[in-house]
Design a protein that fits this description.
Elements: H1 17-33, E1 39-46, H2 53-63, E2 65-71, H3 75-79, H4 87-94, E3 99-102, H5 110-125, E4 136-141, H6 145-149, E5 157-158, H7 164-176, E6 180-184, H8 191-200, E7 206-208, H9 225-234, E8 238-241, E9 250-251, E10 256-257, H10 265-274, E11 279-280, H11 293-305, H12 309-325
Parallel strand pairs: 1-2, 2-3, 4-6, 6-7, 7-8, 8-11
Antiparallel strand pairs: 4-5, 9-10
The structure holds zinc ion (ZN).
């Protein structure tokens, strides 16, 4: 594929983060007035061709949330020879207090098969269009549980984080100051290259998605509350998003309960209390489950409820707000 493709002309209006701020604050307050802790979901994506926006927005109101959304890279976009979609800007314009637009995530096949051209597009549009953060980049990604169920195994993505694409992405994050979301399975052999990149790019803000989600326990003996506490101490630009399965969720390919948080909550609460603005709420709604927001929202609230009082509001929305607006609320 030849370089970044032009966006649609009608979608050229960039996002103005400061102009949107008052509306978001008003929405947060109105959710609080209903007796709910607001949620800011930092990591979700959708397929513009499959989203029932009116129903989805109504579910967002029920859940009490603001969503940072990136338009998923549907394969039909790649088939049309495009690597970038401006749709999340349009979505925010249509519902200016519900959505925070996010740059397209690096997913299959735009990223896994056209990584360099995809980064060309990201470089061209991210800052020019005012995106406050980048979407989720998959470096090591086992098939998701829903993909396993439908026999869709192409997503076993493995891209070296310390390879050329990784260096370009970390450098882009440093240059723009924009956080990026990272999908990277938690395994012993994968930790040294990630740590090396955090050392080499100390100003790149990285949101490591899927807190304490380990799909094969035999491959992960090093990660845990004490290791992550050390990393959070050492790398002030490292954040963690808490999109993970519920306590009983089993990863079918390994037969294991992959959300380890639930078995060592009190140890994690100590780490979170020491770094309260580094843990972010996230639902990880994807293009194949935008009709299940009520269920996923309920599960996020179970997680928020599992936290000590002093942490709930910070993890639910204050940490995300600080990351996006560089201020505490
Ligand atoms: Zn992910």
């Amino acid at each position: 594929m030849d370089g970044p493709q032009p966006r649609q002309e009608q979608a050229r209006l960039p996002f103005d983060r400061m102009q949107a701020r008052a509306g978001y604050l008003q929405r947060l307050r109105s959710i609080q007035q209903r007796g709910l802790i607001p949620l800011i979901d930092v990591e979700s994506s959708y397929n513009p061709h499959k989203l029932d926006v009116a129903a989805f927005v109504s579910d967002m109101d029920t859940v009490g949330m603001i969503m940072c959304a990136s338009a998923e890279q549907p394969s039909n976009l790649v088939n049309k020879g495009q690597l970038w979609s401006d749709h999340s800007l349009e979505l925010q314009r249509a519902y200016p207090t519900h959505f925070i637009p996010v740059g397209n995530g690096g997913g299959h096949p735009a990223w896994s098969e056209h990584g360099s051209a995809f980064l060309d597009a990201a470089e061209q549009f991210l800052v020019a269009d005012g995106y406050p953060m980048m979407g989720e980049f998959e470096f090591h990604h086992y098939p998701s549980p829903r993909q396993v169920q439908r026999g869709d195994m192409h997503r076993d993505v493995q891209i070296a984080i310390d390879g050329p694409l990784g260096h370009r992405l970390f450098a882009l994050a440093e240059k723009t100051g924009l956080p990026f979301q990272l999908h990277y399975e938690i395994e012993d052999v994968l930790l040294p290259p990630l740590e090396s990149m955090l050392q080499q790019y100390p100003k790149a803000t990285v949101i490591w998605c899927h807190f304490d989600q380990i799909r094969y326990s035999a491959r992960s003996t090093l990660y845990g509350p004490s290791m992550l506490a050390q990393w959070l101490q050492r790398y002030p630009q490292l954040y963690v998003d808490t999109a993970m399965g519920h306590a009983g969720s089993v990863y079918e390919l390994s037969g294991e309960r992959h959300s380890r948080y639930w078995t060592r909550k009190s140890e994690w609460h100590e780490v979170m209390a020491a770094h309260p603005y580094r843990f972010l709420a996230a639902l990880d709604i994807g293009g194949d489950r935008t009709d299940s927001l009520l269920l996923w929202g309920r599960r996020r609230r179970e997680f928020i409820q599992s936290l000590p009082d002093a942490l709930r509001e910070r993890v639910a929305y204050k940490a995300a707000w600080k990351l996006i607006y560089h201020e505490e609320i």
